[in-house]
Amino acid sequence: MTAAEGPPVKVISEMVLLSAGQLHKAVALAVEAGASYLKNLSGGAVDTATAEQVKHLGKLAPAHVKVKASGGIRTRSRSAASRCRAALVGTSHGVDIVSELKGTLQTGQTPTAEPDATDY
Predict the structure, then answer these.
(1) Could you tell me which residue, 101 or 15, shows the higher pLDDT?
(2) For residues 71 and 41, is the Cβ–Cβ distance under 8 A?
(3) How many C-beta neighbours within 10 Å does residue 37 have?
(4) Which residues contact 64 (CB under 8 A, 6 or more apart)?
(5) Which domains does the chain have, with CATH numbers?
(6) Cα(68)–Cα(64) distance, integer angstroms
(7) pTM of the complete model
């Protein structure tokens, strides 16, 4: 049975509250139900996102299921989720992130290639 028919459905795992086994099961159930997106955390209510979390969720998700990084993403380095297989970034600080990137490019600096696991 597919619970997710019609518009795309996003499943939030709150992965910091789950054991490894629980997360594997949650991902499998979400995929089986037809989820289009898997999201690591809600908007920072439980914890803040780490690059390691997003990378791990990306490894668990099949290629046809997109990953959304969310949870305390307020800086450019934290928004580098595309390098962690995130198709979407959830943030209310988009203007700040773009301004930070614009400033970096105007000074001739090269944007960080990889997010630091502690600075995500």
Answers:
(1) 15
(2) yes
(3) 18
(4) none
(5) 10-106 (3.20.20.70)
(6) 13
(7) 0.71
Residues paired with residue 67 on neighbouring β-strands, in sequence order: 38, 86
Q: Which residues of 3-31 are buried (b: 16+ CB within 10 A; e: fewer)?
A: ebeeeeebbbbbbeeeeeeebeebbeebb
Instruction: Kindly report, residue by residue over 40-55, the tens digit of the pLDDT.
Output: 888 666 777 787 888 8
Q: Rounded distance, CA 64 to CA 72, Å? A: 26
Closest CA to 86 of 101, 103, 105, 71: 71
* Beta bridge pairs of residue 10: 37
Dihedral sign for Cα 56, 11, 15, 18, please: negative
